[in-house]
Amino acid sequence: MLHARFQSFDEKADPSQGGARVAALRAELARRGLDGFVVPRADEHQNEYVPPAAERLAWLTGFTGSAGIAVVLTDAAAVFVDGRYTVQIREQVDLAVFVPEPWLDHPPEAWLGERLVPGQAIGFDPWLHTPPQVERLSRAVEAAGARLVPVDSNPVDAVWTDRPAAPCGAVSLHPEHLAGQDRAAKVAAVRDRLAEGETLLVSDPHAVAWLFNIRGADVGHTPLPLAYALVPRSGRPILYVDGAKLSNSVRDALEAVTEVAPPAGLLAAMDRLGREGRALRFDAATVPHRLVRALEAAGGTATVGTDPIALMKASKSEAERQGSREAHRRDAAAFARFLHWFAGEAPKGGLTEISCVEALEHFRRETGALKDLSFPTIAGFGPHAAIPHYRVTTGSDLPVGPGVFLIDSGGQYEDGTTDITRTLCVGPPEPAFVDGFTRVLKGHIAIARAVFPPGTTGAQLDPFARQHLWRAGLDFDHGTGHGVGSYLSVHEGPQRIAKTGTTPLAEGMILSNEPGLYRAGAWGIRIENLILVEARDIPGGERPMLGFETLTFAPIQRDLIDVAMLDAEERAWIDAYHAEVRDIVAPLLAPDVRAWLEGATRPL
Q: Where is the Creatinase N-terminal domain (predicted)?
C-alpha cells in the first residue's frame, strides 16, 4: 500500500481552542502590564518553513498558512492574511474570537491605529520581527499615543504548555563537486563585497548553508541548519550553531575556515562589537530587531540593507546548474511514471486527492535519491484546483472523477531542487476550460521563449505571461515565477518574475514559469516548469542577450490545447519541447511507460 513519508494529511487546525488560548494569553499580558501583543508567523530567521516550536500563530489561532500575523488586544483580536488564504482563514479560526483581515488592504498597523488609545502598551518579541517591521509598527502605535514594547520572553510561550522542543537536526557537509566552490573561496568572495572595517551578520540560514557548504535538518522540506554567522572584512568568520548538531568530522571541516561558537554567544558578540565601535551590515529581510538594537545600544553602527550573499547564491555555479539538470531528469522519470499511472487509474474511479499525492511521492522515493519533498504537494480536484495553495487533509480529501485535477509538487535531491505543476483533465473538458488552458499555455511559452538584455527585471517580463489572458479580461493573482535554490529553498529570492520583481535577472538564476487561471468553485489551471537564465548569442545582434533554458521535462496534456489558438511558432515550441521530453525521459522508463510517453508527446 502506498503511503506518504514526507508529508502529513492530518488537520492541524483546531478552531475550538482559540477562545481558551486567547484568554490565557490575555491573562499573561495583563500580568506583564501589556494591553496587546503581536504574533507573527515567524521564527528568528523569517523562514518560510519554521520548526514546530516556532508555530506560535498556528497554536494560538488555528491558522496554518505560511504567512500571517495576529494582533491580540484586551477587547479585540485579528488575523491578517494575504489573498492566498482568504478561504482557508475562515475555515481554520474561531470567527467569534478572531476577525480575518486582508493584510495588503488593511495591514496590522492600520488596524492598530484605529483601536489604540493613548497610554496603552503593545508588546512584541524582538527576535521575531525585522527592523523594518518594527519601524512600521512603531510609527502606527506611537501615532496613537501608545508604546511598542519589546519583551524579554515571549508571552505565548508562557501559556503554550506543551510547546515542542527547539530543533536539533544534524548538520551535513554539502559536497564541493555539487557546490562548485569550496568554503574558503566563498568566504573570500563575500569579504570582497564588504567595506574596509565592515562585518556582515549572516542571519538567513539559506545564506549560512550556501557560504559554508553545509545543509541541515531543522525545518521541513528545506535542508536548513538554523544558525548565524559573522563574516568580518578581515579575520576569521564565526559560525554560531548548536554544537550538538555537529559530528566531529563536520566540526573539523568547518573549523578549517571558521570559528564555531554556540548561538547563545551572539548577543554578547553584538555587545562587544558595539563597545569596540564596529560597523555591521545586517540583512533587512531576516535579521531580528533584537540583534540590531543590541549593537546600537552598545555604541556600534548598523547598516540594515541587503545581504550580498543573496545574489551570489542566486546565480548558480556551473556545477549547480549541471546538478539541477540531473535532478530534473531523474524527477522527470518519476513524474512520467505518475502521469502514466494517473492516465490508467483515474478513468476507473477510486482515486482521491490523497492517493494521488501518495503515488507521486512513491515514484519519487523509488529514484533512491529523494531527500525530501520541496514543499507539501498541492493536489486539487475540481473546486480545490482553484485554490493556488491548497493542502489536502483527511477532512478535505475529494474523490478524483471526471473533471480537472491540478498537481503542483517538487523534490529535494542533493544535486537539485525541483518544482512542477501540471493540470490534467479526466474526461472531455468544457470549452471555457480549453480556452483558458490554451491562454495560460501561450503565456508559459512566451516566458520560455523570451530573449532580453542584461538588466531586465522580472517585472518587465511578467506581462509576457499575462498578455493572452488580459485580452480576454482575465488574470491571475500570484506571481509568474519565483526563484529556486540549489538543494535549498524552492522559494528563493531575490529573483522573481512578478509585478514586484525588481531584481535584474542574471545568468545562472533558476526561476519557475507558472502562469495560471482560476475559476472559484469550479477549476484551476497552472502550467509550471523551472527555467535557467542563460547567455544567448544572437547572430547579427548588437548587444549581449539572455534567455531561458527549460529544466523541467513532462508532457503537457495535448487534448486540452485548442491548437487553432496557437500561432506557428507556439506550435513549433510545443512539438520541440515534447520531442525533448521523449529524448531525455524515455530511456529512463520501463517499456509500458515509454509507450505511453510516446503517445503523450506526439506532435500536435
A: 21-153
